[in-house]
Amino acid sequence: MRRKVSAFLVLPLLILLVFTAVNTYAMTEVGTPRRETLIVETQTPTDVPGQFNSYMQGTQMGFGIHQLMSAMMWEMDTITGEQFGEVAAGAPESNEDFTEHIVRIREGIRWSDGEALNADDVVFTFNMIMSNPGIGPSAYYNAVFKSVEKVDDYTVLIKTVDSFPRLALRFGVTIWGNDLRIVPEHIYSQVADVTTFKDSDPVVAGPYIVKAFDSLGKWILYERREDWEYSTVGAVTGKMPQARYILVKYIGDDTTRQMAMVNNEVDILCEVTPEMVEVMTAMNPNIACWYKDFPYATSDDPCSKGISFQMAKEPYDNPDFRWGVTLAMNFDEISVNIFDGVGRASALPILTATAAMQELYYIPLLPWLEAFELDLGDGTTIQPFDTGYALRMAETLKAQGYDIPSDETALIDMFGIGCWKYAPDAAEKLFVKAGLEKRAEGWYFKDQPFTINMTYLADTEAQAGRGLIAAYDQLVKFGFNCNLASESSATWDSNAATGNYEIGGYWPTGGITRDLYAQISGWDANLIVPIGERGAGQGSRWNNAEATRIVQAMSVVSPDSDESYELGMEFMKVATADMPFLGFHSGVKFVPTNSTFWTNYPSAENPYNGPWWWWSCFKYITTEITAVD
Amino acid sequence: MKFAKYVGLRILTWALTIWIGVTFIFFVPRMFPSDPVENMIGRIQSRSGQMDPLEMESLRKSLRIQFGLEGSLLEQYVSFLKKGLLQFDFGPSLMSFPTPVGDIIKTYLPYTLGLMLMTTIFSWLIGNFIGLQAGFRKKQLSSKFLEGVAICIYPVPYFIVALVLQIVFAFLLGWFPLQSTIITMGGFVIFIKSLLRASILPGVSLLLVGTGWWIISMKSLSGTVAEEDFVLYARYRGLSEGRIGWSYVLRNSIITQVTALAMSLGGVFSGSIMTEIIFGYPGVGTLIQKAILQSDYNMILGCITISIVAIATATLIVDLIYPLIDPRIRYS
């Protein structure tokens, strides 16, 4: 009897084991062949599964929706920072004062139900946004556009209320995606209220369609369109996305993400920390990041991290104080503390040193940076730019046993053209110039003991958080009394808008294009509101008349013109002299891939695109990722 | 008359508890230095870089109106009492606007209830059974062993137990998925199969940790009762050990445990955040966590109100049936 009971218990367990083992190696948990399925992580699950309408507010576009299905007017080459037409056949043709724009629509794109994508869809989408106040950007579209009309089946005439030179930059992709996604007119025009239409069985122009989704919001399974050559990607590149299925899946917490990657249960993860990379690569040789070995990460994320000053408060409103903080910090130590020295120095305020921006702005500005001088207030000056950082960091890392190139170009690409000097004596003079007083018991400002309150975002963004903590260590070492606090995202954004901070790990940066207007338009001093109020400009409240003049001048010139570029250079000089934001490194991202089932991911050796799986450009990466034979 | 007064008083206490609880939870999130509109704008900016100043201003106004944050606090509170408390209509989720909070909770609550109810009841039954053995039959080797196991497991933090199970059975052996994948499409059999597979590790982890407390508390209670005069008297009368254990020790020890069970059952509506995070199990725990982080007032209200009502109701039910379990308590 006992034997029978044991067999009764053990047999199902054995069957379960065999079933599990077979499943693990042959099929995914959603029933597709593993070798035909590219598994990609999404950063957050969705609470509204089956909702694919991008104009319904809670839709989580990063769940593969905008990466694989959405139709953008203009897309982005993330390596060069140049836009190209996706639904549009090219750049808009604008009149002289940029109030009328002809947009040609690309021929040959079809919706996944076979209907042709044409000017009707584009005109309908613009007008749908403008006539529905429930769509987030509706009011903005109404403020910008006078009319959007069809000229013929593949030509649209867009009239703007005022001069609008940056149509493609604003309504096309520049970083992550864009809120303008063309919808099929023949579907959406039949819907009574597009803001509550879930669109659970979407008709799309992208190369993939939804095959199935989890009603609990953890995964979406996409299948390549049979007529992929008529999709946006097919029409633009003529190339077929390689994976028949793409499973976009929420993996869970960091521990689970690492285990899933090591067990080959996922092919592509979003951002991780360097410590996680070291663990994963040690356990599974098929796992790699942008670089196969150290420094692993790409430094081309367009959001540099550093420290923001609240410039509506004293003494943070004083450029001498901000420069004092800058020179009080040992950037070499900060680098090591953040990511063990990984990352390209991004010294210019606001402008991120991506590879493209380094070529466009940083290197041309180098002679000016080397000659730039600060008046220390006691009759002496200092030239604060330090071009020796790359070489120093390379030597430091070589001494630790890392394989670092010796070629200067490679070093500049890896570590940047330079950083700000560590000059505590000069910093002390600048603080005195800014009205601070050093006494035996510490620093005083206006006869009161002076304390710097520093905050950083606790939940995410390791680079920004570690940077702020490293900055805290430096300021304490210098002799300041500092408080350090982490904030959850619940209060972080609110404090940014109301200016409720002194020094924060905010990153008012981001930009990948030659024209800097989108990055700097918020620094117009006319947008500044008092502390406690929420304004439309940057929360840092930098009040600089010359910078404002440049922003306003730039707003009316063509983004492609030399004038725009020259104004951008001028802005950077003004910003450097005033130091409204102290940049540490460009956005450093550790984004691991697993080559067990799929290969040819973008990498430093094969940089055909940036490793931005969560951006809308991912659809152009799907044509290159190939199955392992 | 006494019965009516007893019941009336209990119901009044129940209603008052709920009102105070939900009023508290209505006002507290609104006192946080956070703002759902700024959170939404922050999220948009963090993923797409800079936002045109004109666009930011128009978006801010539009969201404030859509989120229903325009009226005074008092107006919002009155509206909540009318709709939320009386009709359980908590309005749209601010983080998943305009999907109603009720729809989202309805999706996840069954999974929370299924897992938590099962594990709470099973751990209560197993724990009390072992605890009774350990307390009543102290000298038996099996009792000492089981008590020892409980004492060892109980102090271990839940997340350690959960992580060990996940690492051993999901990562190393591969018997279970690292993250719960429940296939809700493709038929009932597939759904049940995937649900069971996804629930085993979370369920076992909750059982292991939950049972320990019941063992220790029941052992303590039954050990005390076993020393009472009426138990000694029963022994002198020659009653069997089984009957003494069941009818004398258990019946007198279980009353406190029933109260604790009722409170635990009320608490299951809050979910188990750690289980949901570690095993990726669907549930309302992570909903509450996300709602707090994103200042989704309506979602916080929806989830916590359900929990408050559940705990208050469980307490009310226990109060009402207490005299039935323990004849020493009268309706007075």
Secondary structure tally, helices of chain A? 21
What is the CATH level 1 assignment of the domain at 109-283 in chain B?
Answer: Mainly Alpha
CATH superfamily of the largest domain in chain A: Dipeptide-binding Protein, Domain 3
Can you write the helix and strand succession of chain B as a string?
Answer: HHHHHHHHHHHHH
- Give the count of structural domains of chain A: 2
Question: What value does the average pLDDT of chain A take?
Answer: 92
Which properties best describe this structure?
heterodimer; A: 629 residues; alpha+beta; D-Maltodextrin-Binding Protein, domain 2; Dipeptide-binding Protein, domain 3; five-stranded mixed beta sheet; four-stranded mixed beta sheet; B: 332 residues; mainly alpha; MetI-like fold; 13 helices; 0% strand; globular
What is the strand and helix layout of this fold?
The complex is a heterodimer of chains A (629) and B (332).
Chain A: H1 2-26, E1 37-42, H2 65-69, E2 74-77, E3 82-85, E4 93-94, E5 100-104, H3 119-131, H4 138-144, E6 145-152, E7 155-160, H5 167-171, H6 185-188, E8 208-213, E9 219-224, H7 232-237, E10 245-250, H8 254-262, H9 274-283, E11 287-288, E12 298-309, H10 319-327, H11 331-339, H12 355-371, E13 374-375, E14 381-382, E15 385-386, H13 389-399, H14 408-415, E16 419-420, H15 424-433, E17 436-439, E18 442-445, E19 448-449, E20 451-457, H16 462-478, E21 481-487, H17 489-498, E22 503-504, H18 517-520, H19 545-554, H20 562-578, E23 581-589, E24 593-594, E25 598-599, H21 618-621, E26 626-627
Helix pairs in contact in A: 3-4, 8-9, 10-15, 11-16, 13-14, 19-20
Chain B: H1 2-31, H2 36-48, H3 53-66, H4 73-87, H5 101-136, H6 141-153, H7 158-172, H8 188-226, H9 229-236, H10 241-267, H11 273-279, H12 284-293, H13 297-325
Helix pairs in contact in B: 1-13, 5-6, 5-8, 5-10, 6-8, 7-8, 7-11, 8-10, 9-10, 10-13, 11-12, 12-13
